[in-house]
Design brief:
This protein has about 425 residues and is α/β, with parallel strands linked by helices. About 50% of the residues lie in helices and about 10% in strands. The strands form two sheets. The protein has a six-stranded parallel sheet with strand order 8-7-6-9-10-11, covered by helices on one side.
Length: about 425
């Protein structure tokens, strides 16, 4: 598989959620330069990266110039260094304005990732207006609510949070004193000014990096079917009763006790000396699967709507039964780059080696994989342990990066709405 991340379509779909159609049209067709405007921690960097991925903007960052080039030893979040930081900001923005203007003059499209709340914004505007017209400039304001921003500050730990709070309060005071402000149309004639309409950017920080989606099958691609569950359980009990000469109640009690410890039906069968994979696979082979699983047009549409990813299956079943399920669901095999059937491997889920095997075969970094599954202990936790991102299908699970009630919700991560959510009356 190619290592290049297919992020363009994902970024485009996410931007459709964040900005109006009119604003996106201006950014796509008219703007040569975009200035991000907002408080530190508001999400400007994430949105600027999305603009770079979706529309090919060349990204310039004031933080990068300050911390990596001009002032690498200066801690820009220390409350007692505000005077030093503000003095340094003039030099940073002077250099930023020069680079941005040169890039626009060369014909590059540019997005500027910086606070742009005070007079430093006008330093950049002055440089830009010497090389381009106001109509080719856009400003994207990110007015993230205070409670969301303060929640984000705590992610890096208590010490980092205190520094972020200090910076936040500094800019709050600046806004209150009139030393900083969001841009107004009357002050920038001809410039397109827009405001982001959503601020739930937490997932957007990582979804643009996803290159491979790893799908579990049973109870993930299709909801739990009582007839299938009953068929599997009946065969399991039959095997245990025959092997140990137990009654049905004894077999159920013993199986339940071990399953609570091992958290896996397959491993529980292995514990009792039965080949768990073989038993479960035989159950699927013997049942009239096509009676219980019907073609799912929404599921097919989900895969059709996400062509920018490599899709792979990871199941403890055999390849034959996995392909049979997909066929019954009406999902063509052509959607999948690979089917990893652990029935054919030395180990099974939840063994971390299974997930590491997938990573090795896809040739993508661990964090570029999204594991989609229903079982916390079999799908989510072991996938996270090797560095994958995770989406739990079913009830919300705190350890998962995100949870969805059903598989169609996965599309919403990438701006694709397969199943319309009900509106609250």
């Amino acid at each position: 598989m190619a290592k290049k991340l297919p992020t363009k379509k994902t970024a485009e779909n996410v931007l459709k959620k964040l900005l109006s159609g009119k604003d996106l049209t201006v950014l796509l067709r008219q703007a040569k330069v975009v200035l991000m405007v907002g408080m530190p921690g508001s999400g400007k960097s994430t949105i600027s990266q999305l603009l770079a991925s979706a529309y090919g903007f060349w990204r310039f960052s004031s933080d990068q110039i300050r911390m990596e080039e001009l002032f690498p030893d200066q801690e820009h979040r220390q409350a007692n260094q505000h005077d030093q930081v503000m003095l340094a900001r003039y030099q940073v923005y002077q250099e930023l304005a020069r680079r941005v203007a040169q890039a626009v003059q060369r014909g590059q499209r540019v997005v500027v990732d910086s606070t742009n709340l005070d007079d430093k914004r006008d330093m950049i505007m002055k440089a830009l207006l010497e090389v381009t017209k106001p109509e080719s400039i856009a400003m994207v304001c990110v007015k993230t609510p205070e409670n969301i921003m303060k929640s984000r500050f705590s992610w890096e730990g208590e010490d980092a949070a205190q520094k972020w709070f200090s910076v936040y309060e500094f800019w709050q005071n600046y806004l209150a004193e009139g030393k900083a402000s969001y841009p107004k149309a009357k002050d920038y004639p001809g410039v397109h000014i827009c405001t982001v309409k959503r601020y739930d950017l937490e997932t957007f920080d990582w979804i643009a990096e996803i290159g491979v989606i790893v799908w579990d099958v049973d109870k993930t691609l299709y909801a739990s079917v009582s007839a299938i569950t009953t068929g599997i359980n009946d065969l399991i009990m039959k095997e245990m009763m025959q092997k140990f000469s137990w009654s049905l109640s004894e077999a159920q009690e013993q199986f339940h006790e071990q399953h609570l410890k091992l958290k896996s039906t397959t491993l529980t069968l292995d514990h009792f000396g039965l080949d768990g994979r073989a038993v479960i696979d035989r159950a699927f082979q013997e049942m009239d699967l096509e009676t219980h699983l019907k073609p799912d047009l929404k599921l097919k549409k989900l895969f059709e709507s996400l062509p920018q990813f490599h899709h792979v299956i990871l199941s403890n079943a055999s390849r034959a039964s996995t392909e049979r399920k997909l066929k019954a669901l009406g999902v063509p095999l052509k959607f999948f780059s690979e089917i990893f059937a652990t029935y054919e491997l030395p180990v099974i889920k939840p063994d971390p080696q299974v997930f590491q095997h997938v990573i090795k075969q896809t040739n993508f970094a661990p964090h570029q994989h999204l594991m989609v599954g229903d079982e916390p202990n079999t799908d989510i936790l072991p996938a996270k342990a090797v560095g994958m991102r995770t989406a739990r299908i079913g009830k919300p699970f705190e350890a998962a990066d995100i949870s969805f009630e059903n598989v169609y919700g996965v599309g919403r991560l990438f701006g694709v709405e397969i199943e319309q959510r009900k509106r609250k009356v």
